[in-house]
Amino acid sequence: xxxxxxxxxxxxxxxxxxxxxxxxxxxxxxxxxxxxxxxxxxxxxxxxxxxxxxxxxxxxxxxxxxxxxxxxxxxxxxxxxxxxxxxxxxxxxxxxxxxxxxxxxxxxxxxxxxxxxxxxxxxxxxxxxxxxxxxxxxxxxxxxxxxxxxxxxxxxxxxxxxxxxxxxxxxxxxxxxxxxxxxxxxxxxxxxxxxxxxxxxxxxxxxxxxxxxxxxxxxxxxxxxxxxxxxxxxxxxxxxxxx
Length: 243
Hints:
Helix content is about 30%, strand content about 15%. With about 240 residues, it is α/β, with parallel strands linked by helices.
């Protein structure tokens, strides 16, 4: 595993963007696995800046996203499709017909998951998967205790996740209770994995995930078994791991 430490969030984001841009430049028709949440926003902003300068071309890139809320359309401002459009897809020259997110409006969970697995297989697998890291070690919506062998599946969101998401919706009943997510098996099949972390509140789980035992109770710990993982964080997040 390679570890890069930035002084702060901005430097961390720039280092992560460097790795993604190198992938695009090396293989213009690469398949990127993308993540949502607050952590990658700075990385996407940096990629957009380089695109606007003419340094990056997304025209041949294909993307597959980690997850999507079940029950939300791509037009809903809390959907992950909307997030990706806002922070990256609408700002670069990527072909949106080659940007894939699980179908949140598909009521049949098995069908939605099988279709998404088929998309990932059809595009040839993921060249580089971008991941954030949850406070309990989750990656995507793979929560502690989830089996490592799963591909795309439907998960029941934890009460903690529902509580954390309440602030984004008008009322609690609007908060999705389920989501479609790539499984650990799908993530581990990516050729390269890039994990980004920021903030002192992530220091404990970073240490557990990358220096502790490999266990489903800390889903990200399985990444210790991947042969090409890069961890990029700021000093606050990597403080305990780099002691």
